[in-house]
């Protein structure tokens, strides 16, 4: 944000998404879609998973570390991109696969294709996706959220035993 401000870019909000869009817009304008995405993924630091439309094509992309999840599927003849598989399930869609860390997928009337695959050397998934953000019936990066929670609970019970009658997630009410 500060670098862009020094270059005379004016922001309308304080949202990180606006920074991402400003960088992506500049890079695509100067280098085309594929190289624009490549440069943007190299410039940006942090976590993001996004979907946006450019000239009648849908693009979905994920940060190179894979911090935030992104998955896609189909509902009828239409593609759907979401942060978790439960969204695709709820609308009666069919899951195709996760969007990989550092991957950019282009969706068009003729199908989809990976236009960039630029993952980091290591992955760094956000633990909050499994314990806080996602529905228990979701699958994130081929891991069932419910099973992940059970395994983490067992590990926690072994490492830090507590006298308790029942253990519930912090946001249990969210799924009621």
Automatic annotation (TrEMBL):
Keywords: Glutamine amidotransferase, Glycosyltransferase, Transferase
Presence of keyword Ion transport: no
Pfam annotation, one family: GATase_7
Domain Glutamine amidotransferase type-2, chain residue ranges per copy: 1-110
Annotated InterPro entries: GATase_2_dom, Ntn_hydrolases_N
MF annotations from Gene Ontology: glycosyltransferase activity
Annotated protein name in UniProt: Amidophosphoribosyltransferase
Native organism: mine drainage metagenome
